[in-house]
């Protein structure tokens, strides 16, 4: 829809990412964390191999000085010129040689560290490594999304269209956590979520196993809960909760577009945070560890005045991840040497 316009390399800036999120309804506090946490590469670092920084320019100074100065590490880069390459976020975009070739041919610069922009686990619906065998991505949609769609005339506004309820949403996340792609710096290993030999053990050696098991979920929970809250539809029968339609999920995942008829509405850190907490008790392996950590740290005290609540929720969310060890390590792969093929 034009909210993000990547440059010729496929990149957007941290400020552009924040503004795009706000354009689709996100509050500024809710937009700060993904902008601050993902667009972390300098303009000269085409392969995202030279270092990761934080663009404190996307954070209002008062909030940064009051809440974040003691939380974030000393790495800094003022202004709004840190970048994220939106076109090289899959594992197949990894650099395999010093010449800048990727595992899969691409017109964009290869990424030396795709694990930095991957969730702890994910579906393979939009993973380009599988496009040769499934060019329309329909088979993967049916594998990852289809099993959790149902005809439910009670909640649906269209009795003939399948929908995903919150129970189906949680079941989908369970499937992803145990059988999905695990190419992230936050990934545990295999269907039994082993810590030993995992990517999170390698990239975050300072994080103990119990906290690593919780952090495995932070990115997937944040992204999917944000999707749920942004595009979920109120149940037709007036019951509590929301659902997503098959048509909307197809539009989002297969067409990379906003659902037809969708209108901008507020997307808050408060709502996303409590959706992540609500995923407790849904049998998502190790997921309750993360939801429980949020439940301890995220809610606001009833004794505080109702001002700056979104910024306070953002602070509490970042504090949760900080306590679990989010900022403890910053391991970066350099570009492969001429003699090395990864």
From TrEMBL:
Q: Which domain of life is it from?
A: Eukaryota
- What is the name of the protein in this document? Uncharacterized protein
Task: Record the organism.
Answer: Alexandrium andersonii
| Source organism phylogeny | Eukaryota, Sar, Alveolata, Dinophyceae, Gonyaulacales
């Amino acid at each position: 829809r034009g909210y993000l316009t990547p440059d010729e390399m496929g990149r957007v800036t941290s400020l552009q990412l924040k503004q795009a999120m706000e354009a689709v309804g996100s509050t500024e506090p809710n937009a700060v964390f993904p902008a601050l946490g993902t667009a972390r590469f300098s303009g000269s670092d085409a392969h995202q191999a030279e270092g990761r920084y934080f663009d404190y320019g996307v954070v209002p100074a008062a909030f940064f000085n009051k809440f974040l100065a003691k939380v974030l590490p000393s790495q800094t880069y003022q202004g709004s010129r840190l970048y994220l390459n939106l076109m090289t976020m899959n594992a197949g975009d990894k650099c395999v040689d010093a010449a800048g070739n990727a595992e899969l041919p691409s017109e964009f610069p290869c990424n030396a560290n795709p694990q930095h922009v991957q969730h702890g686990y994910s579906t393979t619906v939009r993973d380009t490594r599988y496009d040769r065998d499934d060019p329309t991505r329909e088979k993967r949609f049916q594998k990852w999304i289809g099993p959790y769609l149902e005809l439910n005339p009670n909640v649906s506004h269209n009795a003939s269209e399948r929908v995903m309820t919150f129970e189906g949403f949680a079941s989908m996340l369970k499937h992803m956590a145990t059988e999905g792609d695990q190419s992230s710096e936050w990934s545990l290993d295999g269907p039994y979520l082993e810590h030993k030999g995992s990517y999170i053990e390698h990239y975050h050696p300072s994080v103990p196993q119990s906290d690593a098991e919780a952090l495995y979920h932070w990115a997937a929970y944040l992204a999917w809960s944000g999707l749920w809250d942004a595009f979920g539809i109120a149940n037709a029968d007036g019951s509590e909760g929301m659902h997503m339609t098959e048509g909307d999920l197809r539009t989002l995942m297969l067409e990379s577009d906003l659902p037809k008829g969708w209108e901008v509405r507020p997307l808050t850190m408060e709502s996303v945070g409590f959706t992540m907490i609500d995923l407790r008790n849904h049998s998502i392996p190790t997921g309750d560890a993360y939801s429980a950590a949020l439940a301890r740290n995220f809610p606001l005290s009833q004794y505080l005045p109702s001002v700056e609540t979104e910024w306070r929720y953002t602070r509490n969310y970042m504090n949760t991840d900080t306590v679990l060890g989010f900022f403890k390590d910053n391991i970066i792969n350099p570009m492969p040497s001429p003699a090395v093929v990864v």
